[in-house]
Amino acid sequence: MAFFGELGYLVPELRAPGAGGGMLFTPLDGCALREGKEPIMRARKGPPEGFSEMKIVVVGGGEVGYNVANTLSEEEHDVTVVEEDEERADKVDNELDVITVRGSGARPQVLEEAGVFPGCDVDILVACTDHDEVNILACWIAKRAGVKRVISRARALEFTDSPTWAKDLGIDVMNSPERSVAREILELLFVSSAVHTAELLDGRSGIYALRVAPNSALVGLALKDLRTLYPNFIAIIVYIERNGTGYVPYGEMVIEANDLCYIVTSREQAWKLEEIYQMKKSRPLKRVLIIGGGKLGFQVAWKLESQFRNLDIRLIDHNREKCERLATELKRTLVLCGDGADESLLRQEGIEGADGLVCATESDEANLLFAVIGKALGARKTIAVVRRKIYMKLDNYMSVDAIVNPNSALASVILRHARYKSGAGVLSIIEKIDAEMLELTIPAKSPAVGRTIMSLGMPKGMLVALIVRKGDVFVPVGATVVQADDKVIVFATSDLMPEAMDYLGVQ
User: Fold this and answer.
1) How far apart are CA 169 and CA 380, in angstroms?
2) Residue 305: which H helix or E strand, with range?
3) Are 200-278 and 434-503 equal in CATH topology?
4) 45: helix, strand or coil
């Protein structure tokens, strides 16, 4: 079945790939027009200097859409939010300096009201509702209207299993929050002392945040001397948090005890971080428990099975039907039907001394409680999944080793692709850090070509963290000569990033 909507688009049936049936969204109904009102006047921090304003439509005003719209509007981009739920729409309307359109983003009439129509000047459409079909159809319509770049959230795993399927529909980026946060959880388990992680270069490198132990050999050492003390460990500290204040470090900066250091290194060398920063011997993972058998719990178990052949993985869920299904889909995971707060069950399944406990149910409160209980029962590292932003601050007050947020993870991915017209890869490491990592390719005409990084004279607050050259990834030193076609990963504060691009001759 196919039909023409009011905007002249041939609208297809939308079902999950390979599915014989599914929900069909038809953009036939009219939309609720927003009421006219005076614009909200709020102070904005403005866009990073050197970057032009973009016209952006965000479909979905939930937590992810709200955060994305808020960040982009603060940078003085022209943002319109489409939201069907009245309560969410009112929240966006009252709290953000954006235009709010009420209605479903799967309907051409609603998108037209938001500025998406054939020949429109919208730069980016981001679809991040809780309904995959709405997101995909909104992107499909937007692409055919001439929107330059479309980005879709996908919750169902079948929508992200095939990398070509989305591109065939014209969707530039399709991202699963479950998969994003699952990767983060694996890195947190892999480097047990890390409190935050972020993937770089498709997993070949990463950023790991670790505190400096008082007895670490790093205490009192200047950053420029790190390579001398550890000549075989190739890494670079790109950010330091000290007493509530953050810094992009420079060579003469001296490391202090309890500094929270964000380190960029290859995944192959990440295991050395604990020995250097925490004075702990890293050990291979032996046993991991997962509470919650939803999409995220399944993803974590599946990824652990794929990467760790001899790992003892145990997944607990209270729903028997779900457990029976998971037992057929997971090959080396012991699936148990039970209560994640049952002390006797946890003890029986080896919580004491377990390398990790991942609490990934649909309840934020339950996950935090399970993590606290697991820590008290002897788990080496506990990770709680929360979706409400307010709970992210509780790791300073509760005995939980790490808290991860799927919505924040997705928002970071979206902002990475949406923030600049060029689509350059921007990675915001942690929300509270006002710094970015930008992936750039050095053009042949760049004034940096043939010069050493030291001779570029880049000021404090910006540094080159990694270089990818002919497939090799390495951390540069001051004497490293920049070459044409180098892919460089630059770390800088948000306000200095345009200047860093100028130094490297990248538009």
Assistant:
1) 45
2) helix 295-307
3) yes
4) coil
Helix, strand or coil for residue 484?
A: coil
Answer yes or no: are the C-beta atoms of 490 and 467 closer than 8 Å.
no
CB 395 within 8 A of CB 402: yes
What would be the CATH architecture of the domain defined by 200-278?
2-Layer Sandwich (3.30)
What CA–CA distance (Å, rounded) separates 205 from 209?
13
Q: What is the pLDDT of residue 405?
A: 85
Chain centroid offset of residue 239 CA: 18
Pairing of strands 260-266, 205-211: antiparallel
Q: What is the mean pLDDT of residues 211-221?
A: 92
Residue corresponding to tokens 């479950």: 178
Q: What is the pLDDT of residues 138-188, one digit of tens each?
A: 999 999 999 998 999 887 656 666 656 677 777 888 887 777 788 889 989
Question: Nearest to residue 277, comparing CAs of 148, 345, 191, 363?
Answer: 191
CATH 3.40.50.720 is held by the domain 287-409 = yes
Neighbours of 447 (CB within 10 A): 12
The whole-model pTM stands at: 0.71
Give residues with Cβ within 8 angstroms of 170, minimum separation 6.
139, 140, 143, 144, 150
Please name the residues in contact with 56: beta carbons below 8 A apart, sequence gap of 6 or more.
72, 77, 78, 79, 80, 122, 123, 124, 125, 126, 418
Give the CATH superfamily of 2-175: NAD(P)-binding Rossmann-like Domain (3.40.50.720)
SS (H, E, C) 78-136: EEEEEECCHHHHHHHHHHCCCEEEECCCCCHHHHHHCCCCCCCCCCEEEECCCCHHHHH
Quick: pLDDT tens for 222-256.
998 888 888 888 888 988 989 878 888 888 899 99
Nearest to 204 by CA among 180, 188, 187, 192: 187
Q: Give the distance, in angstroms, between the CA of residue 247 and the centroid of all CA atoms in the same chain.
A: 22
Query: What 8-state DSSP symbol labels residue 278?
Result: I
Question: Using an 8 Å Cβ cutoff, are 394 and 403 in contact?
Answer: yes
Report how far apart the first and last C-alpha atoms of the chain are (Å, whole number): 45
Fold of 434-503: Alpha-Beta Plaits (3.30.70)
Coil, helix or strand at residue 423: coil
Residue 302: in which H helix or E strand, if any? helix 295-307
CB atoms within 10 A of CB 146: 13
